[in-house]
Design goal:
Blueprint: E1 2-3, E2 6-10, E3 14-15, E4 24-27, E5 31-35, E6 41-49, E7 67-77, E8 83-92, E9 102-103, E10 107-111, E11 115-123, E12 130-139, E13 144-155, H1 160-186
Antiparallel strand pairs: 1-2, 2-5, 3-4, 4-13, 5-13, 6-12, 7-11, 7-13, 8-9, 8-10, 8-12
């Protein structure tokens, strides 16, 4: 598809709505962008899922505890290309399309070689929520780039100390039982 001086091959925009207990996501997939002009051009790509009459929102995973909102952007500028821009992700507890509720930290892009960046924040949605991500790319004239972005929601893992102590609990119980048994045999 060509938009003005930009040709874009947007291979996929995906959503895992309504999500599951492990994860929920939206993805811009692998996108090829070509600037057909002789000067730098900017394009904005936004993907959303949730809210509205035609979209199914996310109902899982849920909080409490707070969930992680992970934002990931990666890409490879073509030979001689410079790509600048931003990638932003939002989780919106009001479940509206293109909602800008809770934002993950912005990923800034300034690349002449392959890049991959992630940011994360916590998010505590209501029963239904939406996800939105937005990529803004400025590409040098006559050059191209491949890019992708994704927004993920997943549960906050239990603290490692708690997991470790709970794993050792059966061994502790076994030790107590063996000690009592040994005392009973001596008496």
């Amino acid at each position: 598809m060509t938009l003005g001086d930009i040709t874009i091959d947007f291979s996929t925009g995906r959503s895992s709505a309504p999500g599951n207990v492990v994860t929920a996501y939206i993805s811009q997939g692998q996108t090829s962008i070509r600037n057909n002009s002789g000067s730098a051009q900017t394009i904005t790509i936004t993907v959303t899922s949730g809210g509205g009459a035609h979209e199914e929102g996310f109902s899982a995973p849920q909080s409490p505890p707070p969930l992680n909102l992970l934002s990931t952007a990666s890409g490879t500028p073509g030979s001689g290309a410079t790509v600048t821009g931003t990638f932003k992700s939002w989780g919106d507890a009001s479940d509206v399309e293109f909602g800008h509720g809770k934002a993950a930290p912005v990923i800034n892009i300034n690349a002449t070689v392959s890049y991959a960046n992630t940011t994360t924040t916590s998010f505590s949605p209501n029963t239904m929520y939406s996800l939105t991500d937005e990529a803004v790319y400025t590409i040098t004239g006559g050059k191209s780039t491949d890019a992708s972005g994704q927004t993920d929601i997943f549960p906050t893992p239990a603290p490692a100390g708690l997991v470790l102590s709970l794993t050792g609990l059966p061994l502790f119980g076994l030790g107590v039982w063996l000690r009592r048994r040994s005392k009973l045999q001596i008496a």
